[in-house]
Amino acid sequence: MFKRLLTFLILPVSLIACTFLATPVLTQTNADTTKTARHFSATPSITSTPTITDTTTITLTPTSTATMTFTSTPTITDTATITLTPTVTLTPTFDFPDVKVHTQAHCRYGPSSAYLHAADLYPGDTGTVRGRFPYSKWLHVKFDKLNYWCWVSNSVIDVVGNLDTVRYIIPDLQSVGSNMYGPPQNVRASRNGDQVTIFWDQVSMTEDDDRGYFIEAWVCQNGAYLWWTVSFPDQYTTSYTVTDQSGCSNPSSGELYTVEKHGYSLPVKIPWP
Questions:
Q1: Which of these, 11, 69, 160, 230, is most buried using a 10 Å CB contact count?
Q2: Residue 105 has pLDDT above 70, yes or no
């Protein structure tokens, strides 16, 4: 009996509690009618304002005093004293052989008496030897009284010094001076046994300029290969015969020049027979 009564009391309370928890608002809109059913006006207000006050104040005061002081004072004492001792290479001063004329003679533009006259020499004239010729005993000398070099026979001078230290040189006839007449023309040669005759046409020169002609040749005589020079006093001599034998290993040859007082023409090769 008591249980039934308790059930009867609890049931209405539960229904009322359910009614307060649900507040439905039904709005239905139709074309013809509008029904608004409001069973309850209950506006639940839930105010939830969480207030979290958590103020954490962290004050970091780093106290780190690290003062690194590097005092690096390098002391490098390296004083290198280099004392150079220069090596002096002495250049020997060449002492040209000295000459002194003992017989009056001519100094010439080449190493034989067939060349043009260059200067007069007198006893007592001095100079130095600057060159020598390989095919004769003439010397190329710079005489103190002259401002140029010329050739002289060693038979008219005294030499003091070693001639073996002096170089050989070949005369350059084109350096002597100028020639206004040109070389001989129509140069030819013929042989008759051991005799070779050379011919050429006359070169007309003034009497003052005329110094004739000059031949420089290599010939074979008695088995010896000889350097041969000959000059002619004037322009009117237009042939020359020389002995040239067989028996030498080198061929005979020659060149012909016109000579006037200013110098030598270009050479003409002789067609040696």
A1: 230
A2: yes
Q: Does domain 98-171 bear CATH number 2.30.30.40?
A: yes
CA nearest neighbour of 172 among 267, 270, 268 = 267
Q: What angle do CA 99, 100, 105 make, to 5 degrees?
A: 110
Closest CA to 195 of 240, 242, 251, 246: 242
3-state helix, strand, coil in the chain (%, to 5): 10, 35, 55
Residue spans per domain, the chain: 98-171, 176-269
Enter the pTM of the model. 0.66
Residue with tokens 């009564």: 5
For the domain 176-269, what is the CATH superfamily, name and number? Answer: Immunoglobulins (2.60.40.10)
Distances (CA, A) of 26 to 15, 20, 23, 29, 38: 20, 16, 10, 10, 7
Q: What is the mean pLDDT of the chain?
A: 80
Instruction: Determine the residue type at 154.
Output: N
Which DSSP category does 173 fall into? Answer: G
What is the pLDDT averaged over residues 143-172? 96
